[in-house]
Amino acid sequence: MSLSFEGRVVLVTGAGGGLGKEYALAFAERGASVVVNDLGVDTKGGGKSSAAADKVVEEIRAKGGKAVANYDSVEDGEKLIQTALDEFGRIGKLQCFFCINIYFSFILLSTPDLIHRVHLRGSFLVTRAAWNHMKKQKFGRIIMTASAAGIYGNFGQANYSAAKLGMLGLANTLAIEGRNYNIYCNTIAPVAGSRLTETVMPPDLVASLKPEYVAPIVLWLCHEQCQENGGLFEVGAGWIGKLRWERSQGCIVRRNNNAQKWSTVEHEYLHLYINRYKFFLIHLLSCFFTAEAVGQKLPPTTFSFNHTQSILYALGVGMSTKDSDHLRFLYEGHPDFSCLPTFGVIPSQAAMMDGGLGSVPGLNIDFTQVFLSKPPCLFLLAVNTYSGKELVCYNQWSVFVVGAGGFGGKRNSDKAKVCVVYRSKQCVVSLRIQAALYRLSGDWNPLHIDPSFAAMGGFKAPILHGLCSFGFAARHVLKQYADNDPSRFKAIKVRFVKPVMPGQSLQTEMWKEGNRIHIQCKVKETDAVVLSGAYVDLQGASEASPENLTQGGGLQSELVFAEIGRRIKDVGSELVKKVNAVFGWEITKDGQNVAQWTIDLKNGCGALHKGPYSGKADVTFTVSDDDFMEVVQGKLNPQKAFFSGKLKIRGNIMLSQKLEVILKDYAKL
């Protein structure tokens, strides 16, 4: 949905540059008649010039828009409003924004300073001048621009902080008094790079905080369809967060025993709670991406869950008691109560969304460019989930970052796998889906529930979580080919192609080749493909037997590692003394990494883990399943394998000499 402001009049103060200029241009581009107010002062509030406002007006008119300049101070609010009435006959919206910022130490302040006159008193005077006109026409939208300094405080800005928080108080009262007249007032606290912030922010940060990234929320809050009133929003770099006040439960204190009850009073004490609108579309939109980010590790996080979260997830991906096979996933008292295997994406996603990505050096995500046609880049995120030292699941996220490409190099890969050519469909399952339940599993992005928020992103309605479609498709495979037995589930790979709208029917088409089920998902109503290049690998009923392993039913190397595990149990202490190292193994097949093993002969009595080491392995080997067996059986010399590129080694290469201690006696396999 493209917001239109045809027939509306907008007054933007401080519109000669920075945020104000971006607002004025954005409104004009969408049909509004704009009063561009700017006194033309410098960053310290001195001087006066008409050049800034005139330049913005010229730019708007050059693009076919309607605008007029005003050079009055906001302390002359009546003059600003009169300009709008004289030129356009009405006033519909106010954007009170002031490009003045003076730093004073508290002890140097005097009460009637310029900061209060311009920011707080100026906001009052301009709004008062427009108020009666808005009441008569029964329409008005007012945006006050506060600051984080006003909300949280900031050293050396006592005057500025007081003025900005005063604007929030003014806005809250205006929201109450104006709502019966369809006059809505909201407050934003933006962070943007400008001439005011370039002296206190690093250049790369200023560049990432472009003023145009703040404009979308201003446009939406000023639109006639927006019913938000009395809200406070922090915004910057495309991210938007709604703030609210909270109060503790408190207690009664009527005598002089405050100290004894202070812990009760203090519990959940009055604080600002950021309503975490996680603007994290899995497409990630756009980012500043440098080589420094490659190879970085996210800080470890803890994820706890019980049967409630497991059941909520099952309900969110469409399970119901109408199907008796579903009861094992919905009733904690069922003798075979289980968690759906795709629940493994939930802790992985939580690790990334709850601040993990923000800690990666060289990865500075910008949340505004998802719909632009720009060259993308691709980066991979690998997340390992452990229960103690046991690897529970491994997730790899392939993230296409729109707008961050253009750095040269090939646009495709020689290793890209060609998707299977689908033959006649062996099985098709359709089911109508909805989004409200799935979000309870931890993806709180309002894009999937809030119509007004979805409209800001250009959608006519909220879209379904991609991972919800993912869960539906995996569940269809589990039922059709594995009798709803989660122990048969081995791996899944999908690519998200298009969004699904809540209420649409998801159709999963399936083809079986051995233990791999190829899948493609479509929206039944439109025939649009939404998941492609997808498959689910299942464990065969007797896949772990030596016969099947050596006949191609699984990885031949698994049998070797199983034998190594048994040997470690028998003589692990002796091996630890001889080897004293941790070996990592990455087994590939058809160029894809399909299995990882850790042989720990450094700690305790030794151990074998399926999956990567939780710390850092001393040496890591990468080899195909077939070449691994050739080496183990003595048919391929390890040194020749290394120099020919069949065996790759990372870490302490000298430790490879100790492989003989580990792999001896396996030639018979």
Secondary-structure map with pairings?
Layout (H helix, E strand, L loop, with lengths): L8 E5 L4 H12 L3 E5 L13 H12 L3 E5 L6 H12 L4 E4 L17 H24 L2 E6 L2 H5 L5 H21 L4 E8 L12 H6 L6 H8 L9 E5 L2 E8 L11 H9 L4 E5 L10 E4 L17 H10 L10 H4 L14 H9 L9 E4 L10 E11 L2 E12 L25 E6 L18 H6 L9 H17 L6 E8 L8 E9 L2 E8 L5 E10 L7 H5 L6 H23 L1 E9 L2 E10 L5 E4 L8 E6 H8 L5 H6 L3 E5 L7 H5 L6
Parallel strand pairs: 1-2, 1-4, 2-3, 4-5, 5-6, 6-7, 19-22
Antiparallel strand pairs: 7-8, 8-9, 10-11, 12-13, 14-16, 15-18, 16-17, 17-18, 19-20, 20-21, 22-23
Helix pairs in contact: 1-8, 3-4, 4-6
Structure description:
The protein is α/β, with parallel strands linked by helices. The chain has 4 domains: 9-244, 3-Layer(aba) Sandwich (Rossmann fold), CATH 3.40.50.720; 249-287, no CATH class; 307-538, Hotdog Thioesterase (Thiol Ester Dehydrase, Chain A); 556-665, 2-Layer Sandwich (Nonspecific Lipid-transfer Protein, Chain A), CATH 3.30.1050. The chain is 30% helix and 23% strand. The protein has 19 helices and 23 strands. A hairpin with a 2-residue loop joins β7 (232-236) and β8. The termini are far apart. Residues 96-112, 266-289, 366-375, 417-424 and 541-553 have low confidence and may be disordered.
